[in-house]
Amino acid sequence: MSAAAIEVRELSKRFSNCQALDRVSLSVAPGEMVALIGASGSGKSTLMRHLSGFIAADAGSASVFGREIQRDGRIARDIRDIRAGIGFVFQQFNLVNRLPVMTNVLVGLLRRTSLWRSLLMRFNVSERQQALEALVAVGIEQTAWQRASTLSGGQQQRAALARCLVQRAKVVLADEPIASLDPESSRKVMELLAVMNRERGCTVLVSLHQVEFAIRYCARTVALHRGVVVYDGPSSALTPALLSELYGADVQDLFEPAAGAVAQPERRPPLSLQPSAGSLL
Predict the structure, then answer these.
(1) What pLDDT, in 10s, does the model give residues 58-102?
(2) How far apart are the first and last CA of the chain?
(3) Domains of the chain (ranges, CATH numbers)
(4) What is the pLDDT of residues 27-65, one digit of tens each?
(5) With a threshold of 0.70, does the pTM exceed it?
(6) Cα separation of 179 and 176, whole Å?
(7) Which residues contact 166 (CB under 8 A, 6 or more apart)?
(8) 203, 31 Cβ separation under 8 angstroms
(9) Under a CB-based contact definition with an 8 Å cutoff, are residues 44 and 20 in contact?
(10) N or C: which end of the chain has fewer CB within 10 A?
(11) What is residue 251's DSSP assignment?
């Protein structure tokens, strides 16, 4: 039996007087796209940071494809190597504003290149071609040589997804990737995550503040409330009545912006990094 793509067991974390995570357990199978929802302060971002090894828990464990990221407060010694297979998409884009978009995307290759080339940011023609193909796949190839700071929020988030493509990430952790985007940009970013999952088999865990996007794009949703998993099941079952039962007065936080802002997902060509004659895809 193959290892789970993401495995969390009894993970707990306390900050001062706040129990951010309370014995959270979660298993995501290879190839799943799972939404993680919750009102502000529910523990979504804290869980994501533990999965990436950026924060050490007080207790419990987390692993990716059988490789332990942390256990009982200790981060794995080979965490940098493990991260090579994990793509990260953050709310604040995490791009270097002064560098061209192309260079930001090529950063996804750094863990697979030699130390001296990584330090000098030297990339060959083949690697640059891969980055350009990834930008074509996410629909912003025309921005390749612009400074990242000149891009809109939606374009910057798509550049972050292109970086995941170049990295050939097996798992993508997207921490509220649409929280600061307008509805149309949000739709495009969510559709690209869905295409990466559908066409490339990436396992995707995406934390969302808006339940509408979880229902539309993810077959399964895990709901957190004050650091506790209160629901893990089909997204289609997340009725207003159930959400009110789970969240009480906090339920309104899960419906911002207004419902109905999301259009039907657009269809894009399969994401590929293999060049073909006459095409970058």
Answers:
(1) 999 999 999 999 999 999 999 988 998 999 998 876 788 898 999
(2) 34
(3) 1-85+170-271 (3.40.50.300), 99-167 (no CATH)
(4) 999 999 999 999 888 999 999 999 999 999 999 999 999
(5) yes
(6) 5
(7) 105, 106, 108, 109, 130, 131, 134, 273
(8) yes
(9) no
(10) N
(11) G
CA-wise closest residue to 227 among 13, 55, 83? 13
- Cα 222 to Cα 93, 205, 218, distances in angstroms: 24, 10, 10
Structure tokens at 90: 């953050």
68 close to 76: Cβ distance less than 8 angstroms: yes
User: What is the Cα–Cα distance from 161 to 238, expressed in whole angstroms?
Assistant: 28
The structure tokens listed for 202 are: 């990436």
Residue reference for tokens 């869980």: 47
Residues 124 and 94: their CA atoms lie apart, in Å, by 24
Q: Is 41 helix (H, G, I), strand (E, B) or coil?
A: coil
Q: Which two tokens stand for residue 189?
A: 């970013």
Helices (H) and strands (E) counted in the chain, each on its own, are 9, 11
Beta bridge partners of 279: 276
Q: Check: CB of residue 218 under 8 Å from CB of residue 212.
A: no
What pLDDT is stored for residue 261 in this prediction? Answer: 40
Q: What are phi and psi of 269, to 5 degrees?
A: -60, 155
- How many residues does this entry show for the chain? 281
